[in-house]
Design brief:
Number of strands: 22
Structural class: alpha+beta
Radius of gyration: 26 Å
Length: 666
């Protein structure tokens, strides 16, 4: 059977479409592709990456666009290209294999598989000469030493299956002492001088920031808040934050947040927006408010599409990393004139030596300038000039989970800054997602240009969207959002929960494509794990859904948290979102029900402003929601009922009394 040429032109992934003109006979991961490998009796060359990945572009230009390399690939392999964002299940399986074989992972990921998908050699980026040598060596080994390949692949699969146990299920109930222990371990790893955790490259610890804020609210301990402020300030003033247009890059290549890897991901900005909005709401810090507003606007203005949000902006522009974003002193003077140009160089830390390549600098903002009007004028002029430069590529793919996180973050930012337009954006996104991505009662992972893809949603998609919908329900009182969230959670319980081990969750559905392994990774990374995300949705829904579902959700949430206690005890930095959910759980979570007939009730606004992270807040007339069952206004005045678990205080009618009741709810 001869290869049929490149088959990516109709893919729903922009990353795959980037490779549609390659001379490589790429195709998507399908049963037909595996069958072709079996019929031709050749290995599969699996290449996994994503649209904003700089080194993916480098390998594409060096190798996949090269006729010599393409000929070697086409003659000896079935070549499959996968977008890790569209197929995180495949990425998880083969990333585990890559890490097991090489000790590290990354993208582009390059794996050689038997026709039935078993890996026998894995790596990441290869320069063209090395890659050509590797292709020849693998092809020769396949032809002449097939028995060695079979033994190696069997051994690798055996090792991966032995490691793929996930959480054991069962475990002790989460207690405040465990949260305190986890926080102490996290704070011991903080870089108190430069902010964040660990060394270079340094990634934004989004979930940990949210967890530390919740710990501070529970315990009153100033140390977690101080850690949040150090990290959030360092990031906001560093090059990882876009000082002209807002929004965060994916990570910093150094340990001081100076030089970013320039790609901007929706998930990073959504998760960081939630943390900055919480910081702003809790402290009123001007920098927190500024970054919250600018990041929300960046998401809406730069990533918005058809009501939803696209995946990312590329690290490269015109094939050059960071070209859009970096400046030299001479460029500042050229755009701004001599006086403003020199002033801007000082304000933004732009020097002749530079902080990036070829004497260019990434803009930083070590301190707010005294002349705010001049700063605003300079910023506006520089941004306008920047828009005339080559712009980064856009991955227009819409990912369900990432949009779910965006819904939650924008809704919470609307409360923090009292900006109803952010809630409007969240509502539009939720409506569009449900209209397009919910097909016959089941979610799809991604869409492109209004065309939904075939890839089934994974656990994080159901969980993140359910949490976003529950957030909208609390802010709007629209029961449509609650009903939709309940439907998603019920589907997750039916298809992702491990029936043999309560508390354990799989990342793929029981009726999804059966891979070599069924992924079940409980650890939080750059994004929350599916397991910790569904725990959050369950914990919230347990107090908003009607009986008997509420009891089912409460039990499932408790089981999930109990199963996660080893993560909190032994790997707390890999359990940032688990810690955030646990902090909410150990407080009840706190519920505030405001009986009112006024949607603009000052008491309801105060409840939303004062509520700790993870709390549940509803408002409306008596019996308008589960939390307002038989709870009415008192003597003609709005009344707030503060509850912990199933125990409620006497109603209060003033903001001061509500603040006192929440302060006592430790």
């Amino acid at each position: 059977m001869s290869p049929a040429g490149n088959r990516l032109v109709d893919a729903t992934s922009p990353y795959l479409r980037q490779h549609a003109d390659n001379p490589v006979h790429w195709q998507e991961w399908t049963p037909e592709a595996l069958a072709e490998a079996a019929q031709r009796d050749v290995p599969i060359l699996l290449s996994i990456g994503y649209a904003a990945c700089h080194w993916c572009h480098v390998m594409a230009h060096e190798s996949f666009e090269d006729d010599e390399v393409a000929a070697a690939m086409n003659d000896n392999f079935v070549c499959i290209k996968v977008d890790r964002e569209e197929r995180p299940d495949l990425d998880a399986v083969y990333m585990n294999a890559t890490v097991a074989l090489t000790g590290h992972g990354g993208w582009p990921m390059t794996c050689f598989l038997t026709p039935d998908g078993r890996p026998f050699f894995c790596g990441t980026y290869y320069p063209k000469p090395n890659f050509l040598q590797l292709l020849a060596a693998v092809a020769e080994t396949w032809r002449t030493r097939r028995d060695e390949v079979e033994r190696a692949s069997d051994h690798i699969i055996g090792e991966l299956r032995s490691m793929a146990s996930g959480l054991p299920g069962g475990g002790p109930e989460v207690q405040p002492a465990l949260c305190d222990q986890a926080v102490a371990a996290v704070l011991a790893d903080e870089d108190t001088a430069k902010g964040g955790f660990g060394g270079a490259p340094k990634f934004p610890p989004s979930a940990l920031l949210e967890a530390l804020l919740r710990t501070h609210e529970r315990s009153g301990d100033p140390a977690p808040l101080a850690a949040v402020e150090r990290t959030c300030t360092a990031m906001a003033r560093g090059g990882i934050y876009d000082q002209l247009a807002g929004g965060f890059a994916r990570y910093s290549v150094d340990d001081s947040w100076v030089v970013p890897h320039f790609e901007k991901m929706l998930y990073d900005n959504a998760l960081l927006l939630r943390a900055y909005a919480h910081w702003a709401r809790r402290t009123g810090n001007p920098l927190a408010r500024k970054v919250t507003n600018e990041t929300a606007r960046f998401m809406i203005d730069e990533l918005g599409a058809d009501g939803m949000f696209i995946s990312s902006l590329d690290a490269d522009a015109a094939g050059v990393e960071g070209l859009t974003y970096v400046w030299t002193p001479a460029q500042l003077i050229e755009v701004l004139g001599d006086s403003d140009g020199r002033w801007a160089a000082t304000v933004f830390g732009v020097t002749k030596a530079g902080t990036f390549e070829h004497g260019s600098s990434v803009l930083q903002l070590p301190a707010d300038p005294d002349d705010a009007d001049r700063f605003d004028r300079v910023r506006t002029t520089l941004l306008a000039a920047r828009l005339t430069r080559p712009q980064p590529g856009r991955d227009e793919k819409v990912v369900t989970a990432w949009n779910g996180w965006a819904i939650t973050a924008l809704a919470e930012a609307s409360v923090a800054l009292q900006r109803p337009e952010f809630l409007d954006a969240a509502t539009r996104c939720a409506r569009a997602l449900l209209d397009l991505h919910l097909v016959d009662g089941r979610l799809r992972r991604a869409s492109l240009g209004g065309r939904v893809g075939d890839s089934a949603a994974i656990l994080e998609d159901y969980a993140a969207l359910a949490t976003g919908l529950l957030t909208l329900y609390q802010l709007t009182g629209d029961k449509h959002w609650l009903d939709a969230a309940v439907g998603l959670i019920d589907t997750a319980l039916d298809h992702f929960a491990d029936p043999q081990r309560p508390g354990r969750w799989f990342d793929t559905a029981d009726d999804a494509e059966q891979l070599l392994l069924r992924p079940a990774d409980p650890l939080d990374g750059a994004t929350p794990s599916g397991a910790s995300s569904i725990a959050e949705a369950l914990l919230t829904a347990a107090h908003l859904a009607p009986a008997p579902r509420a009891d089912t959700y409460a039990t499932a949430a408790a089981e999930a948290l109990s199963a996660a206690t080893p993560v909190l005890a032994r790997l707390p930095r890999s359990g940032g979102h688990w810690l955030a959910v646990a902090e909410a759980a150990v407080r009840g979570p706190i519920q505030i029900a405001v009986a009112t007939t006024d949607s603009d009730s000052p008491l309801l606004a105060a409840a939303r402003e004062l509520a700790p992270g993870g709390a549940i807040v509803v408002g409306g007339p008596v019996n308008s929601s589960e939390l307002l069952a038989d709870r009415d206004r008192v003597e003609g005045a709005d009344a707030a009922y503060v509850c912990r678990g199933r125990v409620c205080d006497l109603p209060v009618a003033t903001t001061a009394d509500l603040a006192a009741a929440l302060a006592a709810a430790v």
